[in-house]
Amino acid sequence: MTSGFARSALLTDCSRTFPAADRNTWHAFDGEFYFIEANGRPNRAYKYLPPVAEASRITSCQTSVGQWGDAENMNNDYDGGHMIGSQLGGYGGRINLVPQDLNFNRGNWAQIENKAADCGSLPNQRIFYYVRADYADTTSLVPATMNLTLENRETDEAVSFTIENVDAGGPDGANQRVQAVGFLEDQGCHQEYRWQRCLARRACCTTYSWAFNRQRR
């Protein structure tokens, strides 16, 4: 569904925009692919799931990106939000970070990412996970909307929608989250995988164990 020229690069700078040489180009990072648009902003990202392996965050860059959003719209609070979530292996640098409404990022968007993290027991690269950040003009660093596409590459079943980058993802945010989570459940992405991975790491917390056991009753 997505085409472009992917090249290896190490874009580790946490800058507001990327230089001309890096624009209009797909960049490959350890199984993920990121596109920088003509004005130097992160614009598109995709990867194939599984594998699912959590990636390290770069908290200093996340903080900076969130603060750029706060400065641009002082009436709102922003996170440095991942296009490809860190729980899915998304890179922690600027090429994968955009100012994302705090409530939206930590709510409906995070629930979709967490459900996608349950896809680890599926056949390799079964799910195509694609995100596009669209901006209202040529200078804003804050995306107006986020488009999400999920596709089962075996059956060609897919779901795609555009979510507003505002509290809760806008008036349709909750319904879109339900749609995405339901689609992933139907493809076989179940919480048991996260629980098994947690046990393998021997890092399960009491709260998570209680929540998992409660759901199984």
Description:
Strand 8 (145-152) and strand 9 form a beta hairpin. The chain is globular and about 40 Å long. With 217 residues, the protein is an alpha+beta fold. It has one domain: Extracellular Endonuclease, Chain A (3-Layer(aba) Sandwich). The strands form two sheets. Strands 1-2-3-4-7-8-9 form a seven-stranded mixed sheet, covered by helices on one side. Strands 5-6 form a two-stranded antiparallel ribbon. Helix 3 (108-116) packs parallel to helix 4. Residues 205-217 have low confidence and may be disordered. It has helices at 59-72, 102-106, 108-116, 173-187, 191-201, 206-216; strands spanning 6-8, 25-29, 32-36, 42-49, 78-82, 97-101, 127-134, 145-152, 158-164. It is built from six helices and nine strands, in the order E-E-E-E-H-E-E-H-H-E-E-E-H-H-H. It starts with 5 loop residues before the first strand and ends with a helix.
Output the CATH homologous superfamily.
Extracellular Endonuclease, subunit A
For the record, the count of structural domains works out to 1
Strands side by side in the biggest sheet: 1-2-3-4-7-8-9
Note the beta-strand portion.
15-25%
Name the descriptors.
217 residues, alpha+beta, Extracellular Endonuclease, Chain A, 7-stranded mixed β-sheet, two-stranded antiparallel ribbon, 6 helices, disordered C terminus
What's the quick description here?
It is built from six helices and nine strands. The protein has 217 residues and is α+β, with helices and mostly antiparallel strands.
Protein topology:
Elements: E1 6-8, E2 25-29, E3 32-36, E4 42-49, H1 59-72, E5 78-82, E6 97-101, H2 102-106, H3 108-116, E7 127-134, E8 145-152, E9 158-164, H4 173-187, H5 191-201, H6 206-216
Parallel strand pairs: 1-2
Antiparallel strand pairs: 2-3, 3-4, 4-7, 5-6, 7-8, 8-9
Helix pairs in contact: 3-4
